[in-house]
Design a protein that fits this description.
Blueprint lengths: L1 E9 L2 E7 L4 E5 L6 H11 L15 E11 L3 H12 L12 E11 L4 E5 L2 E3 L1 H8 L3 E4 L10 H12 L2 H26 L1 H21 L3 H15 L1 H16 L5 H16 L6 H27 L4 H21 L3 H20 L4 H27 L1 H15 L6 E8 L5 H4 L6 H11 L6 E8 L7 E2 H4 L2 H15 L7 E5 L10 H11 L4 E5 L3 H6 L2 E10 L2 E9 L1 H13 L5 H11 L1
Parallel strand pairs: 3-13, 3-14, 8-12, 12-13
Antiparallel strand pairs: 1-2, 1-4, 4-5, 5-6, 6-7, 9-10, 10-11, 14-15
Length: 584
């Protein structure tokens, strides 16, 4: 429960510390004194938007801090589990193993920026909201209007039936199905592009495979083409050179041979000529080898126009491909391998459409079964919810009201699906997305017949503001024993409730306080008198500044406050007597 609320420099509150207790806590005071500001402070504590205007004039920042104590045997255990997953450091340094203490803090700077802390550790606003929403539930002056919203009605029904785990299981299966259908849609929307890509890759791979480019072949062909292009010049020029080397009167080979023999003869007598003689022998060998190679080459040189044309054609193919793909022949070889690998991946790799369709059908069946279990569980709640809410309405002055719950399904199951036939998910998808919504396959409509003989109508059509507030209380009473937030805050939920019904509303809030800590900002003396703890909010002017202060009322001050709520004047004897009667 919320044990203590501390405020500093928040609007009219300069400094205040309020202590709350179990059961029903009433907050009273004149209009404009600052009662609703306490609710604003609690809303800040649970993550509502901060405004710079909330900072008291002259102060640098405003601060709101709430101290919560939860027994670990019960709801505190659920909160501990949540903290272990999202904020384990908040559980460090705990001295009391039987009670969980949480301190939630929110500060607002003059610039409007705010900070949040849990057990003095900084946290994000999102994390603060996630935690605080499990600790406090606030019903503002118009929050009963939320009862008219289908989503809120469904949430309350699921809370009443303890169906949140069942709903979570359904949503998990639905999410898997949605992801698979998204994949199928993406696959099909890209199918045309994919087929075009396959055609392009197949053509390019075929083109390169047919050309069969080879860097070694290209080098050989370019050399051969150069020879064929210059065969006549090579034969004439190199033939004359070979003649000079081997056959002329002063042939180079003969000159070198004579020099080699002469040097060999002198090297036997003059050692310094041994190395020149060896070099001359090597030169003779090299020159002889070169002339033989030149002779062999010249024997192969033949002006062959047909061969030259064939070579030009082959090199033309390779050079065209080099220009097209922007790479050399070696790069063409690599590109061919890449295209063949990509083609294999696109055509045969990954999940095929048929396999994906089968996955979708399995996921849909699992989701549909989970949705059916959820629907059946909701359907079974109707009678029990009717009984408990009508009991609460009777206590709240709506003795003849008849309450009921209707499930409205989002379409019907496909007959093909029921018969187990193969369904193309793309054809079924629009229907299924409408049917399988995040909350299930149905919505809930809460109905009310306020008077005998009238047909049951949706709450939004028949419930007045006061009736809606009482229906909210009746629903809250029905939900009291369910796993829910430990602290409930009602900001003038008695608006529109006359004095005759005040005691009945007060009793209902008192009973609700047996299961929750209830904080109620009220103008009804009957509610204030039923409270186990009564706090007064009062506005005072000191030194030219307005300040809102709070005090715990007990004894005569409490009698006086309730008398003032009854008759507008605590000095009235009849009002004092009535206040004492209510307190008894």
């Amino acid at each position: 429960m919320l044990f203590e609320l501390s405020l500093q420099d928040l609007a009219l509150f300069e400094r205040a510390a309020l202590e709350f207790g179990p059961g029903l806590n009433a907050v009273t005071g004149e209009t404009g004194a600052g009662k609703s500001l306490l609710v604003d402070a609690l809303e800040l504590l649970i993550g509502s938007r901060a405004k710079a205007a909330m900072v008291r004039k002259g102060a640098e920042r405003a601060r709101v801090e709430g101290r919560f104590l939860l027994p670990l045997q019960g709801y505190g255990e659920l909160i501990s589990t949540w903290l272990e997953e999202h904020l384990p450091e908040a559980l460090e340094d705990r001295d009391d193993r039987d009670e969980l203490e949480l301190i939630l803090t929110r500060t607002i700077g003059r610039d409007g920026r705010s900070r949040a802390h849990v057990n003095h550790r900084p946290v994000t606003q999102k994390l603060l909201r996630g935690l605080a929403s499990q600790l406090v539930e606030i019903h503002g002056q118009n929050d009963h209007q939320r009862l008219f919203e289908p989503t809120e009605q469904l949430r309350l029904v699921d809370l009443f039936g303890g169906l949140f785990d069942t709903l979570a299981g359904y949503r998990e299966r639905r999410l898997k199905w949605l992801k698979l259908t998204d994949r199928l849609q993406a696959l099909e929307s890209q199918e045309s592009e994919r087929l075009q890509r396959i055609d392009l890759i197949r053509f390019q791979a075929s083109e390169l495979a047919e050309a069969n480019p080879s860097a070694a072949e290209a080098e050989t062909l370019r050399s051969e083409r150069s020879v064929l292009r210059h065969a006549s010049e090579l034969g004439s020029e190199l033939g004359a050179l070979l003649h000079q080397l081997t056959e002329s009167d002063d042939a180079a080979l003969d000159v070198v041979g004579r020099a080699e023999r002469s040097l060999d003869e002198w090297a036997g007598r003059i050692s310094d000529l041994a190395e020149p003689a060896s070099q001359m022998r090597e030169a003779g060998l090299l020159l002889d080898e070169a002339t033989r190679g030149l002779s062999v080459f010249l024997d192969g040189v033949d002006a062959d126009p047909a061969r030259l044309e064939a070579t030009e054609v082959r090199l033309g193919i390779l050079e065209r491909l080099e220009r097209k793909y922007g790479t050399d022949v070696a790069g063409l070889e690599a590109r061919r391998r890449e295209l063949e690998a990509e083609l294999e991946g696109i055509e045969g790799g990954g999940t095929t459409r048929e396999a994906l369709v089968l996955e979708i059908q399995k996921a849909r069946q699992s989701m549909a079964e989970s949705a059916k279990r959820l629907s059946q569980a909701r359907g079974k709640l109707a009678k029990k919810l009717k009984k408990e809410v009508e009991s609460g309405l009777k206590d709240l002055g709506l003795e003849r009201a008849e309450f009921s719950m209707a499930l409205q399904h989002h379409g019907t199951e496909s007959s093909l699906a029921e018969n187990g036939a193969q369904i193309d998910p793309t054809d079924q998808l629009a229907h299924d997305r409408l049917r399988f919504q995040a909350s299930g396959t149905e919505s809930v409509e809460l109905l009310l017949s306020a008077n005998p003989g009238e047909d049951a109508q949706p709450l939004r059509a028949v419930a007045s503001g006061g009736e809606a507030a009482r229906i909210l209380l009746a629903l809250r009473g029905a939900l009291a024993v369910r796993r829910s937030t430990p602290t409930l805050i009602f900001d003038e939920v008695d608006a529109g409730v006359g004095g005759r019904l005040g005691p009945k509303v007060a009793k209902h809030l008192e009973v609700l306080g047996h299961h929750h800590q209830v904080l109620c900002v009220t103008h009804l003396p009957a509610i204030a008198a039923r409270a186990t703890r009564h706090l007064q909010v009062k506005k005072e002017v000191e030194d030219g500044r307005t300040r809102t202060k709070t005090s715990l009322l007990m004894g005569e001050p409490r009698v006086a406050e309730i008398a003032d709520m009854i008759a507008g004047g605590a000095a009235e004897p009849t009002a004092l007597a009535e206040a004492e009667r209510l307190l008894k």
